[in-house]
Amino acid sequence: MVQDNRNDDSNFKHLLWAVGGALAGAWWVKNQTDEAQMSRAERDAPDSVVEVCNEIGDALDSWEPDEECETEEDFVSDLAEYLNLETGFEVEEYPPTREGRPDILVEGVLALEMKIRPSKGERDRCVGQCAGYSRLWVTWIVLIDGRPSESADLDRLLADKRLDRIQIWDFH
After folding, report:
1. Residues 64, 9 share a domain
2. Together in a domain, 32 and 76
3. Cα–Cα distance, 118 to 146 (Å, whole number)
4. Domain co-membership, 55 together with 125
5. Interior CA angle at 154 toward 73 and 38, to 5°?
6. SS3 sequence, 22-69?
7. What is the 3 state secondary structure string of the chain?
8. Phi, psi (deg, nearest 5) at residue 162
9. Contact, 84 vs 59, CB < 8 A?
10. In terms of domains, do 91 and 11 share one?
């Protein structure tokens, strides 16, 4: 008896189309989610964002705060001056914006929010501030003298709010 493979081939093709469609749909949903989490700066000027983030990341890796810094304002001024000298980017301290006043705004695409040994309330407030900033700019948190548990708590808070694109730079 000869078996008819046409029916099997047809079922297999339908299965391939179904799997292919599901994969394409999953890719589209992920792409839309990734796009929705991007800041306006990332959507409008992706090349500039990459350049700024790479250079500022390298600069942060080598930054050593002045020993005379005591207050958050001291650290913000020290870091802003350092970034300006090291990168040549436009670095603004406390620019007034519709989303509040980030501590440092670099080249209009990267917001830096600085916290020194933040209490739980300050960490909660920081997440709220960064949520607002992240709509417009790539947003990073610069944590000074924080305990590892504070950094981990801040990281969990960001993840819980689906803000895990916000990086934490931890300086001990």
Report:
1. no
2. no
3. 7
4. yes
5. 90
6. HHHHHHHHHHHHHHHHCCHHHHHCHHHHHHHHHHHHHHHHHCCCCCCC
7. CCCCHHHHHHHHHHHHHHHHHHHHHHHHHHHHHHHHHCCHHHHHCHHHHHHHHHHHHHHHHHCCCCCCCCCHHHHHHHHHHHHHHHHCCCEEECCCECCECCCEEECCCEEEEEEECCCHHHHHHHHHHHHHHHHHCEEEEEEECCCHHHHHHHHHHHHHCCCCCCEEEEEC
8. 60, 40
9. no
10. no
72 near 88, Cβ under 8 Å?
Answer: no
| CATH code where residue 47 lies | 3.40.1350
Range of the domain at 54: 39-171
Whole-model pTM: value is 0.78
Full pLDDT tens readout for the chain, 172 residues: 555 556 666 555 555 555 554 554 444 333 333 667 899 999 999 999 999 999 999 999 999 999 999 999 999 999 999 999 999 999 999 999 988 999 999 999 999 999 999 988 998 999 999 999 999 999 999 999 888 888 888 999 999 999 989 999 998 7
Exposure class string for 72-105: b at 16+ Cβ within 10 A, else e: beebbbbbbebbbebbebebbbeeebebeebbbb
Number of domains the chain contains? 2
